[in-house]
Predict the structure of Response regulatory domain-containing protein.
Amino acid sequence: MIKVAFGARVNNGRKKILIVEDDPGMQKLVSFHLKDLYDLKVVSDGWEAFTILNEDSDPQDLILTDIEMTELDGLKLIEMLDDIPEYRQIPVIVMSSTVQKNDELQLDFQNYFGCLPKPVVPAELYLKIEEAFCSRIG
């Protein structure tokens, strides 16, 4: 397993990631790979994500979302987040079973940071998350 050293926070030393995924198996897989490195909250659709974002006094550092969900899908979630100034700064990484390894979604949103094909490869997941965190420094 890759140990990530540069995602530290002042409060408890762990960044907060909101996982938005409707597949319970994928929720467990992603959570398994990230639980030792980050504080995680897992929800099943975009509406639940908005509830967490609105109710949590300590903001999320990153959102990891599926694209295809029945209630509020990931693309609409990204669009809505991009329209709200306090959420626009939260990087969003998309996970998709419809995207191939070397493909990239061309989305024109300030908060969109990239896409990972499903099933996610742990090393690629860690790298993409830390790239997103490092891009927000400064």
Summary: The longest strand covers residues 112-117. The first helix runs from residue 24 to 34.
